[in-house]
Design a protein that fits this description.
247 residues, alpha+beta, Immunoglobulin-like, 2 domains, 4-stranded antiparallel sheet, 5 helices, 7 strands
């Protein structure tokens, strides 16, 4: 039987490449269906002796995180293990650090991954090695210690305790502020507690820091540029237990 030139051409076009393809597959090798690529970017190795992590409510996390140059929202982060005992050294790795990361920090973020406070950090833009090392040493991240440092020490103690006397007799220095606030009556309004455990909105501290004109010396501007710290104060007061009330 003879085939026309057209039929022969079609046969060569369709069947010969198919035969060659089948022959090539049967070469005894197993081919990977997925190409696995190494993770891009540098890796941070954090070592620290952290205490106080369990004091934070669920809406906050103690993390190691990377931030861009002009943003308070992390690009990537990893939560520190709460199972670690206070003061015990932990080692944590954060991988995939790209060029968009400007700083690497041990910090607290909220549910929106916004930085609330930062305990320590390093510049990531000048890194030349694939593995970066951050030794944070001993870090107290306890919630009230954090408030003492970033709220009272930075904004309040100049009038409330750092000098020889404290305004309104209210000492907000370290070691004295908790007892002076929690369950104590306000000198300006004896019907209110300075900090009412579990009731931030009813606390005089909340009122005076959120509104001007409450007392003679306005306090409403003290943290007006730091709303995250005002929220932090309210969340701390709300999570206090009723038995902390002393009157």
């Amino acid at each position: 039987m003879r085939f026309s030139p057209l039929v022969c051409s079609v046969f060569c076009i369709i069947f010969v490449p198919l035969w060659l393809s089948l022959a090539g597959c049967d070469d005894g090798r197993i081919h990977e269906e997925t190409v696995i690529r190494p993770q891009e970017g540098a890796t941070l190795k954090l070592t620290a002796r952290v205490s106080g992590m369990k004091s934070w409510p669920e809406k906050y996390s103690v993390v190691v995180a990377g931030f861009g140059a002009d943003s308070d929202y992390d690009i990537l982060s990893k939560v520190l293990p709460q199972t670690a005992a206070d003061g015990r050294e932990i080692t944590l790795y954060l991988s995939g650090i790209g060029q968009e990361v400007a700083t690497l920090e041990l910090c607290v973020v909220n549910r929106l991954r916004k930085r609330i406070v930062s305990y320590c950090g390093m510049d990531a833009t000048a890194a030349v090695a694939d593995t970066l090392c951050l030794d944070a040493g001993a870090v107290d991240v306890e919630m009230y210690s954090t408030i003492q440092r970033w709220v009272f020490n930075e904004n309040c103690v100049a009038c409330h305790g750092r000098s020889t006397s404290a305004a309104a007799g209210l000492y907000l220095t370290e070691g004295r502020s908790y007892a002076a606030l929690v369950g104590r009556r306000s000198a300006a309004d004896s019907t209110q507690l300075l900090v009412a455990p579990g009731r931030a909105q009813e606390s005089f501290l909340h009122t005076v820091l959120n509104r001007n004109g409450v007392i003679r010396h306005d306090h409403g501007d003290i943290l007006s540029a730091k709303p995250s710290l005002l929220t932090l104060l309210d969340d701390w007061m709300d999570q206090l237990e009723e038995e902390d009330e002393m009157e």
